[in-house]
């Protein structure tokens, strides 16, 4: 079989799928995906997780408002109905997207995996060869499983499979201390399962500001059984359909019995599925494909003509809004080689949809202190409790807070860290201010803040910063 020639080949149908716009109407495009069309966010990630997070949050809230004078009890959680509702919608979008692409005259879809055989040629699993002057690597990332005996048990799940199980397990053991572990611990706890979260170190959400990590760990331990400093040794299936999981803790063996194990111990880039390391620069430690600011893939530090990468395969952030932002840059650069744009990675925010919610943008306090010392400016830090503003009183909140970091002289905002109700929404005006260069006082006093909305916590935090501007 000869090599099929295309104008553009895209490998990966997550954010990669959004690259095909009107500029390609009269050209030949191939899109290759060996997994589920639409990629991680739609099928296994952001979208379905939040569809479980929302009912879990509502159920949890309902059961925890005694202090407001309301006693409520969630009596029935219909997991299978919830699952069917969620995936009826998602599967239809994935199938519809695939059918739409297949129906376009200018696009050929290959539903299989592919790897590079030279810098501009790919071979699919069935042996088809495809070549193009422009190729985009958008193959995302996948879960990493710890290498312990029993990890191949059918009771072991990752985020790819756990949302499709038939019934809510009575007991769930979650391994890991990152975003995925935090979100699923809340989902299963909120929906009524008995949750144990076992983590190998003593810090949850390590990439966050340490005050957030510490306060979140305190809240997690109040809601579910949190076991830190546990080193996973073995998983054994029992004859009654349960599993016994063995850990080492302070030199002693600890065994936990459970009905389901969710492994959430990180994700690695799918650079190896492409054999990218043979033809391009791939970081040995992170397995990320190296790109420049225009998203061009590098070889020996230099861009390879016509080859781009975006999203989890080349981005340390592993976030959908970053993959999408990078896709917009690649989409432009593919057709404007003379005036390429660069991705703005200055203020990348993230939120963890656990309970309480967490959101951050910019530097942690530790990083901001280091920057202030290096650059010789004074750092302003303000921690504003949600419980001290009017809406926080309404909620009788005693947990949530906002931490803002700024340059004392210039009022430049350097970072924001929020734990509490609607943290993922509360942080957005700060992201806006940082992106458009508004100083703390300009932001606080240059606009109205709706009274008595929860956003007043941001206004008060800004006013409390003691910056000159
Ligand atoms: C449980 C979970 C929850 C998440 N929640 C959020 C969230 O709330 N907010 C957020 O911003 N981010 C979230 N993320 C992260 C987000 O999903 C990813 O950052 C994003 O989907 C990455 O998009 P991508 O286009 O790079 O890759 P993907 O969407 O993963 O697409 C890559 C595609 O490439 C295919 N592929 C891989 N190798 C090959 C090959 N060799 N040949 C052919 N095809 C191949 C795969 O099958 C896949 O379909 C979450 C992730 C998970 C796992
Ligand atoms: N709301 C969101 O934006 C969202 C939600 C879910 C996932 N995501 C993205 O998906 C990515 C992957 O999430 P994640 O939670 O799997 O990864 P993570 O990197 O956030 O956390 C992985 C955790 O597992 C621990 N770990 C690693 N190896 C281990 C081992 N062998 N034994 C025990 N523990 C081990 C790590 O110490 C870490 O705490 C995140 O980086 C995030 O960007 C985003």
From TrEMBL:
Locate the active site. Answer: 451
Name of the molecule in the record: Mycothione reductase
Enzyme nomenclature, EC number:
1.8.1.15
- Enumerate the residues binding NAD(+): 176-183, 266
The intrachain disulfides are 41-46
Which terms are listed as keywords in the entry? Disulfide bond, FAD, Flavoprotein, NAD, Nucleotide-binding, Oxidoreductase, Redox-active center
Tell me the residue numbers annotated for binding FAD: 50, 139-141, 312
The entry sums up its family as follows: Belongs to the class-I pyridine nucleotide-disulfide oxidoreductase family.
Q: What is the lineage of its organism?
A: Bacteria, Bacillati, Actinomycetota, Actinomycetes, Micrococcales
Domain of life here?
Answer: Bacteria
Record-level Gene Ontology MF annotations: dihydrolipoyl dehydrogenase (NADH) activity; flavin adenine dinucleotide binding; mycothione reductase [NAD(P)H] activity
Name the InterPro entries on file.
Class-I_Pyr_Nuc-Dis_Oxidored (IPR050151), FAD/NAD-bd_sf (IPR036188), FAD/NAD-binding_dom (IPR023753), FAD/NAD-linked_Rdtase_dimer_sf (IPR016156), Pyr_nuc-diS_OxRdtase (IPR001100), Pyr_nucl-diS_OxRdtase_dimer (IPR004099), Pyr_OxRdtase_I_AS (IPR012999)
């Amino acid at each position: 079989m000869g090599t099929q020639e295309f104008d553009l080949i895209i490998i990966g149908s997550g954010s990669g799928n959004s690259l095909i716009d009107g500029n390609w109407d009269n050209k030949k495009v191939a899109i290759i995906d060996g997994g589920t069309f639409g990629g991680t966010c739609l099928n296994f990630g952001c979208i379905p997780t939040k569809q479980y997070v929302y009912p879990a949050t509502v159920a949890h809230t309902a059961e925890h408002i005694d202090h407001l004078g309301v006693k409520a009890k969630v009596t029935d959680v219909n997991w299978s109905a919830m699952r069917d509702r969620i995936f009826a919608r998602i599967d239809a979008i994935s199938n519809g997207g695939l059918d739409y692409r297949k129906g376009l005259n200018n696009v050929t879809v290959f539903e299989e995996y592919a790897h590079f055989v030279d810098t501009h040629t790919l071979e699919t699993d069935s042996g088809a060869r495809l070549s193009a002057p422009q190729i985009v690597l958008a193959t995302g990332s996948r879960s990493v499983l710890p290498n312990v005996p029993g990890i191949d048990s059918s009771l072991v799940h990752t985020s790819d499979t756990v949302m499709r199980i038939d019934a809510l397990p009575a007991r769930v053991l979650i391994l890991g201390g990152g975003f995925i572990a935090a979100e699923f611990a809340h989902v299963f706890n909120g929906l009524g399962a008995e949750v144990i979260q076992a983590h190998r170190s003593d810090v949850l959400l390590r990439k966050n500001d340490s005050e957030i990590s510490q306060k979140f760990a305190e809240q997690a331990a109040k809601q579910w059984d949190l076991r830190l400093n546990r080193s996973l040794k073995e998983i054994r299936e029992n004859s009654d359909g349960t599993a016994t999981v063995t850990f080492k803790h302070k030199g002693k063996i600890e065994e936990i019995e459970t009905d389901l194990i969710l492994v959430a111990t990180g994700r690695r880039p799918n650079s190896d599925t492409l054999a990218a390391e043979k033809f391009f620069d791939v970081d040995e430690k992170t397995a990320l494909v190296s790109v420049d600011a225009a998203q061009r893939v590098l070889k020996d530090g230099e861009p390879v003509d016509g080859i781009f990468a975006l999203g989890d395969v080349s981005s340390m952030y592993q976030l959908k809004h970053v993959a999408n932002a990078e896709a917009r840059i690649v989409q432009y650069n593919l057709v404007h080689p003379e005036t390429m744009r660069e991705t703005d990675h200055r203020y990348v925010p993230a939120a963890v949809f656990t309970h309480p919610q967490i959101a951050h943008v910019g530097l942690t306090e530790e990083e901001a202190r280091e920057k202030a010392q290096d650059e010789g400016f004074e750092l302003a830090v303000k921690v504003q409790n949600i419980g001290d503003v009017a809406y926080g009183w309404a909620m009788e909140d005693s947990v949530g807070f906002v931490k803002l970091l700024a340059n004392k002289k210039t009022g430049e905002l350097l970072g924001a860290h929020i734990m509490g109700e609607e943290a993922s929404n509360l942080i957005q005006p700060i992201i806006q201010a940082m992106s458009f260069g508004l100083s703390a006082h300009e932001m606080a006093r240059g606009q109205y803040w709706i009274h008595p909305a929860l956003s007043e916590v941001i206004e008060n935090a800004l006013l409390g910063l003691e910056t000159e501007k």
